[in-house]
Amino acid sequence: MQGRGFRDSAEFCHPEDCARIHECVGDAAFYLHDAPQALRFEVRGAVSAEVAQALEQSLRTALSILNCRPLIIDLRRAPHVDAEAQPLLAGLSASGARLLVGDELLAVVGASTKRQPELAGQVPLPRLRRWWCRLLRALHPRCICGSCNPARIWSL
Question: N or C: which end of the chain has fewer CB within 10 A?
């Protein structure tokens, strides 16, 4: 499906472009984003060993539709990664999958992979929000609100 597509090097996919639920395991769900630039599995919920095994099986199934595109496992909406799931994620990373994580999971997931983390591109703030942030910084120089300082996204 075509649409707005991916933006910046972090390769964010707009939900109305290509998201569809792929599988639910326990409290976690996988969303498959099948776009021309990459095949991305988004994990929402805690990543346990059971979730990581189901993700690995889903990825093996999806290899038939990969067609030389990058494979991305998006863990930005995963609040926690269990110790039992870390070796499975490291194996997926070693086989060529790219992991996207936030600051919260960088230390946990980064320690289990052999890759150096790279800061992924950020979606630029809209003009009105940039103006608002400048005004807030002028009024409150120590402002560190989330709207002016968006969370960083790391690629492993």
Answer: N
> pLDDT digits over 71-127, tens only?
889 998 888 899 899 998 888 888 888 999 888 888 888 888 878 888 886 666 778
Query: What's the CATH fold of domain 6-124?
Result: Transcription Regulator spoIIAA (3.30.750)
Global pTM value? 0.70
Return d(Cα 32, Cα 73) in angstroms, integer: 10
Decide if 73 contacts 97 (C-beta within 8 A): yes
Rg (CA), the chain: 17
Domain ranges of the chain: 6-124
